[in-house]
């Protein structure tokens, strides 16, 4: 293996036997034969090939079951490939899914020693680092309890503390971070950054587009065990999203499209160089655009009480339809409401929610005193909400609602939940943390420390 390559994966395939009935496993053991096979083959990885250079941080993305964890386990040597091989050059520390690495009967202290020994540290090195590992894990006296008594959060804390305190040449992280609490996750990301800055190689599995774009130099998209594409994180994440939100009927076609595009997104060319979907208008790298596959699957339409909402959409200020937005820019959320009966004191509303349903912000077209007094049957209204997209990269959902006074106060006369969705593009220049960007203007003054007299 070339000395500036940390990981080489060649023609790697993994086939799992699937037994339809529990006793078939036994029958296969006692009656294996060329004619009768008691299992079906499931191809979890199919002919995977890539290199990771020393010092690179590479993200692996893909839908559930695409083979990410299987790939990492083979690279770490905890699972054997069926064909091909994965070679690593250097000390590898891995944070794989829960359950791997620790012996549940041993205490945290014993597991730390065991793990660090497996990672190649001698006794004096382990003694020198033990306190740092325990401090990072911050699990108090649980360090002397068997790990079978740990919560999943404690387990991850300790596993991560070991993995990143042994000065690995190669760090492999499999999304396990999402188990820890937020403060701990932040501590871990800071530590991963420090390890990377010291020249280590990081291989990272994540479902979070923001994390991959933020942390990685390059990304690889796996789907159904196949390596569909590799390229810049922005490019690969955009293809991943295209696949993730594809209707089942189009998924196969979209996979083929992505595969045909091949390797993409050299940084100098910009994320979509040479791979534009011909059905979309030409755009520059940072342009917002419309992704036809970004369609909510959770839309709920309430029973109409005299008005009906249609054509909910987002556009640029110039009127171009979009749903992949640029943070910081202004957009218009609009819909049409058709009135089948006359309604009094009419107002229109909008709401933006996070993927978990958290209501982030909304607006109503008028105060109660300024509601439209009467809208006659047969009329239509075009409703527009202009807003600035002050949101973190990620996916968001939109509600739309029409309110009128039906005699007993305001009531919804039509309401659509998750009527549209949009994505905010990852932005590496972003300083804001969390979901909502308050347009904070940070400033830092470095103050020279006054030297004490005589020192
Ligand atoms: N030991 C096994 N026996 C049979 N099938 C397996 C085994 N381990 C994994 N698989 C199957 O291989 C496929 C890939 O699994 P893997 O865990 O690598 O996917 P993943 O991309 O990491 O998924 P997720 O994002 O849900 O963690 C899945 O369909 C899984 O059911």
From TrEMBL:
Q: Which Gene3D superfamilies match?
A: abc- transporter (atp binding component) like domain, P-loop containing nucleotide triphosphate hydrolases
> Record keywords: Oxidoreductase included?
no
Q: Name one GO molecular function term.
A: ATP hydrolysis activity
Q: What Gene Ontology cellular component terms go with this record?
A: membrane
Span of domain ABC transporter: 7-249
Which Pfam family is one of this chain's hits?
Answer: ABC_tran
Which superkingdom, per the lineage? Bacteria
Q: Which SUPFAM superfamilies match?
A: P-loop containing nucleoside triphosphate hydrolases (SSF52540)
Instruction: Write out the entry's keywords from A to Z.
Output: ATP-binding, Nucleotide-binding, Transport
Protein family per UniProt? Belongs to the ABC transporter superfamily.
Full protein name: ABC transporter ATP-binding protein
Naturally occurring in which organism (per UniProt) = Mizugakiibacter sediminis
């Amino acid at each position: 293996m070339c000395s500036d390559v940390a990981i080489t994966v060649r023609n790697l395939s993994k086939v799992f036997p699937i037994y339809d009935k529990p006793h078939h496993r036994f029958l296969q053991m006692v009656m294996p034969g060329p004619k009768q096979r008691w299992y079906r083959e499931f191809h979890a990885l199919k002919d995977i090939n890539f290199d990771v250079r020393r010092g690179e941080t590479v993200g692996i993305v893909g839908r559930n079951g695409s083979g990410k964890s299987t790939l990492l386990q083979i690279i770490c040597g905890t699972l054997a490939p069926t064909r091909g091989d994965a070679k690593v050059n250097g000390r590898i520390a891995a944070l794989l899914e829960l359950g791997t690495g620790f012996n549940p009967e041993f205490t945290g202290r014993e597991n730390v020693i065991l793990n660090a020994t497996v990672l190649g540290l001698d006794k004096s090195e382990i003694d020198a680092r033990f306190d740092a590992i325990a401090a990072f894990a911050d699990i108090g006296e649980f360090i002397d309890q068997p790990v079978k008594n740990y919560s999943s959060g404690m387990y991850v804390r300790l596993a991560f503390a070991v993995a990143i305190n042994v000065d690995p040449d190669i760090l492999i992280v499999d999304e396990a971070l999402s188990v820890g609490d937020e403060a701990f996750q932040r501590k871990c990301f800071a530590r991963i950054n420090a390890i990377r800055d010291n020249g280590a190689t990081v291989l990272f599995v994540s479902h979070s587009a923001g994390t991959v774009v933020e942390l990685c130099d390059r990304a690889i998209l796996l789907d159904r065990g196949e390596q569909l594409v590799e390229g810049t994180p922005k490019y690969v994440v955009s293809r991943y999203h295209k696949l993730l939100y594809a209707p089942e009927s189009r998924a196969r076609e979209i996979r083929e499209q992505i595969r045909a595009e091949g390797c993409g997104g050299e940084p100098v060319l910009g994320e979509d160089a040479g791979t534009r979907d011909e059905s979309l208008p030409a755009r520059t790298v940072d342009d917002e655009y419309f992704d036809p596959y970004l369609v909510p699957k959770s839309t709920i339409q309430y029973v109409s009480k005299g008005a009906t909402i249609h054509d909910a959409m987002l556009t640029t200020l110039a009127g171009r339809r979009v749903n992949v937005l640029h943070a910081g820019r202004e957009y218009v959320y609009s819909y049409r409401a058709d009135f089948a009966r006359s309604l009094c004191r009419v107002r229109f509303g909008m709401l933006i929610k996070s993927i978990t349903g958290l209501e982030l912000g909304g607006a109503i077209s008028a105060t109660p005193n300024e509601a439209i007094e009467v809208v006659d049957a047969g009329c239509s209204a075009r409703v527009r909400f202009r807003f600035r997209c002050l949101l973190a990269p990620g996916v968001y959902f939109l509600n739309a609602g029409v309110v009128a006074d039906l005699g007993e106060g305001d009531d919804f006369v039509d309401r659509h939940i998750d009527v549209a969705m949009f994505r905010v593009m990852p932005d590496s220049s972003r300083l804001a943390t969390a979901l909502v960007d308050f347009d904070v203007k940070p400033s830092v003054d470095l103050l020279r420390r006054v030297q004490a007299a005589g020192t």
